[in-house]
Structure formats: C-alpha cells, structure tokens
Amino acid sequence: MLGARSHIESLLKARKLDITLTSEAPLRWSMPGAVSVEDLASTGVPSIDAGLTGGLRRGHLSEIIGGRSSGRSTVVCRALAAAVSRGELVALVDTCDRFDPEAAAALGLDLSNLLWIREAGDASRALKAMNLVLQAGGFGLVVLDLADVAPRTVRALPFTTWFRLARVIEGSDTVALLMAGEHVARSSGGATIAMHEIALRSPRTATKLQVVAGATHARWRGSSDRERLLRGIDIQPRIIGR
Fold first, then answer.
1. pLDDT at position 145, please?
2. Which of the chain's ends, N or C, has fewer CB atoms near its CB within 10 Å?
3. Tens of pLDDT along 135-183?
4. Are strands 215-221 and 229-235 parallel, antiparallel or unpaired?
5. What is the pLDDT of residue 195?
6. Domains of the chain (ranges, CATH numbers)
7. Gap between the Cα atoms of 108 and 58, Å rounded
8. What is the spatial distance between Cα 201 and Cα 100, in angstroms, rounded to a whole number?
C-alpha cells in the first residue's frame, strides 16, 4: 500500500501535479473555523476588515462584486496597497486594460511591487495568466479583474475553472481575489464582498447624480449647485458568507 502511494506521488511530481497532494499543501489551520491573525490579509478598508473579522483568508479565492462607480476598484487598490505595505509582492491581471496606475499610487500603492498584466479583453488569456501567476507563488495578493468583461462571457467559463484556481493556492500565503460585476465564484473559506448600489442625491437638489456603493454618507465640494462635485463616499459593503 505504501509502495503504491509513493509511486503515485512520484508520478504526480513528475508531471508537476504534486500541489494536489495534501502532504505537499497542508492546511493552515487544524480546526474548522479556527483562523489565526497570520491567516488573514487586511484589505486596508476598516469597515470591510471588520465584516471579515480581520481580513481575507490566505490560501483562498474571494471576490468583490458591484456595478460601475460602486467603489470596487478603490477597494482593490487599497487591498493591493495594504499587501505591499506588509512587504508582499502583488499582481493584477487587468483583463480589459482599465487599471489607472496614477489613481492607485494616490491611494498608497507602491507600483514597483506590482506585477501588472494587461490582456486587452481576452478573458481566456487572462485566466491562463492568473493561473500561471498563482502557480509561480511568492505573491501575497493576486487580483483578476473581470469587471468589464461581458457577464455572458464570464458565465460561459467552465465552473471547474474556479475550483482549479482555488486548489492551486490552497494552503499557501496567497489571497486570490476576483473583481466582477456580479457573483462569479469563491472557495469554501473565501468571502464575497458585495458593493451595494444606492442612488446618491445632491444635498441641495433632488437630482440623481450617480449610483454608488451602499454608503452611509457622501462628501461634496463646490460653492454652488452648478459647481457641486462628489468628493468622496464612506463605503459600507456587505460581506456574504465565508
């Protein structure tokens, strides 16, 4: 029996499939639900970390979902910046080439520690790139941006795709994060951060300005109604499951 197991393990290692062995990728915790501080990665957003009881779980696939102008990109940039501030390398697979490095730098992200992969709208190539980065290891946070990919294209991807991504990082120090307009997938220990959308209105007019993340309060600047601009919002997302 032991000889047969050793033979199978040697075959898996020869084909570089040994990550599937539990002996090669031990779980980071021994009791269900028992998570240490080392197993969590702060997102850099206090309200989100509070909902996650500390941060995103390492070794798991999580997602952040929401519509345009919902604050999802801001949260992703803050999470990348938080990881870099901890001395970690980070990666972003930018499927539709929407990443704004200047805005990210303004949020505190040191771009010298970021691997930025631009895939010009090809979701299949972006997934392959994500898989290669996760297999390479050494990253604290790896983000796959599918936010501007057509929902029907994302839904058409084989569901086993997400199982494979989750399996690659199981037991590792890496957090894999999907950004999308709607629910895509997460692993059993991952989380879904939903950026709820509500209509914000100007404090002086009843005109609907835009739809943004479920916020407790909006901050404005400008001396008149015609010059009034949105300066910022306080994000209050909803955490769905673990």
1. 97
2. N
3. 999 999 999 999 999 999 999 998 899 999 999 999 999 999 999 999 9
4. antiparallel
5. 85
6. 36-195 (3.40.50.300)
7. 22
8. 27
